[in-house]
Design goal:
The protein is α+β, with helices and mostly antiparallel strands. It has one domain: 4-Layer Sandwich (Chorismate synthase, AroC fold), CATH 3.60.150.10. About 30% of the residues lie in helices and about 20% in strands. It contains 8 helices and 18 strands. The chain has a 5-stranded antiparallel β-sheet with strand order 1-2-3-7-4, with helices on one face. Strands 9-8-10-16-11 form a 5-stranded antiparallel β-sheet. A hairpin with a 2-residue loop joins strand 8 and strand 9.
Length: about 375
């Protein structure tokens, strides 16, 4: 199913940008986990629209409701249904775009695929759909924290050509990141990014950027050989996020400029296990986690819906000028941070459950 993700910890999201509600059904969450709405709401608050002057002006509280799968604040092992109401939607803002596909948006491709589309708000192609990812990712992250002490932290590492300084992977926290309006822990870069995004919002234009992510305390052995490699599943997850255009793990494309003698990560002893002296592999070797920090970088394009006049054509091929209305982010990366964290949690937990199942049926020598 195109709206489902995962194997043992499996999610199915539902809802369009301007329908009555959006949400997710989680199947495979272990029983006995303490879970209430507050555990999920903290990440939805970081994703929600209207949270600052740099985001879309759409005002949504994004209050999550747990419909099923828990009793007295504890998971039952049965499917967990989470729902968030859409309240501040304005379909009339999209009247002038019903016959004109927005450049670089999904209007044309959805119409060609289905022969019909949600003409207001982008439907399923809207970032509104990511509420289900963030909500289910918060549940997955709670399992990972309690079972393995795994931490997942993402931050904005660039906006346009403005690059943030390298962060301290050992100590960076979400609270530190959230002190910045653009979720960038570099104060100097934050000021420059804020000025740029503010300028472009006033102009009706947009800009792209990158989000970096670190996953700490992942045990070695997660991931599958060949087609289910850990970095392959992480790439699939990250590139499923709206507006993504690039994915890197470890040294990424920069590693292509190095020699093997420079790029290889020598093994050393770290307590009761082997570790690596450097981490160009980004915590993954042969598609399987090696116990080091998993480091990712995801590239986001400029939001496609802008209010500047654009010369284009309508669905019949007739020349048209599109001046998009509606309320849209001039830069998506500040709100993408919890989405990246959620996607990472979904992949890591699913792989952890698969490894636990393998170990349970492994013959002892």
């Amino acid at each position: 199913m195109s709206s489902s993700f995962g194997t043992l910890f499996r999610i199915s999201t539902f809802g369009e940008s301007h329908c009555k509600a959006v949400g997710v059904v989680i199947d495979g969450c272990p029983p006995g986990l303490g879970l209430i709405e507050k555990d999920i709401q903290v990440q939805l608050d970081r994703r929600r629209p209207g949270q600052s002057a740099l985001t879309t002006d759409r005002q949504e509280a994004d209050q999550v409701i747990i419909l099923s799968g828990t009793e007295n604040g504890v998971t039952l092992g049965t499917p967990i249904a989470l729902q968030v109401a859409n309240k501040d939607h304005r379909p009339k803002d999209y009247t002038n775009m019903q016959d004109i596909p927005r450049p670089s948006h999904a209007d044309y491709t959805y119409q060609m695929k289905y022969g019909i589309r949600a003409s207001s708000g982008g439907g399923r192609s809207s970032a509104r759909e990511t509420i289900g990812t963030v909500a289910s990712g918060a549940v997955a992250a709670k399992v990972l924290k309690e079972k393995y002490n795994i931490d997942i932290v993402a931050w904005v590492s660039s906006v346009g050509e403005i690059e943030a300084e390298t962060v301290a992977f050992d100590t960076i926290t979400r609270s530190e990141i959230d002190k910045s309006i653009v979720r960038c822990p570099d104060r100097t870069a934050t000021e420059k990014m804020t000025a740029l995004v503010t300028e472009l919002k006033d102009l009706g234009d947009s800009i792209g950027g990158t989000v970096s992510c670190i996953i700490r305390n992942v045990p070695p052995g997660l991931g599958e050989p060949t087609y289910e490699k850990l970095e392959a599943k992480l790439a699939q997850a990250m590139l499923a996020i709206p507006a993504t255009k690039g994915f890197e793990v470890g040294s990424g494309f920069a590693g292509t400029r190095l020699r093997g003698s420079q790029h290889n990560d020598p093994f050393i002893r770290k307590g009761d296990r082997l570790g690596t002296e450097t981490n160009n592999s980004g915590g993954i070797q042969g598609g399987i986690s090696n116990g080091e920090y998993i480091t990712l970088r995801i590239g986001f394009k400029p939001p496609a819906t802008i209010s500047l006049p654009q010369d284009t054509v309508d669905f019949s091929g007739k020349s048209a000028v599109l001046e998009a209305k509606g309320r849209h982010d001039p830069c998506v990366v500040p709100r993408a941070v919890p989405i990246v964290e959620g996607m990472a949690a979904l992949v890591i937990l699913d792989m952890a459950l698969r490894q636990e199942a393998r170990k349970a049926f492994q013959f002892k020598k």
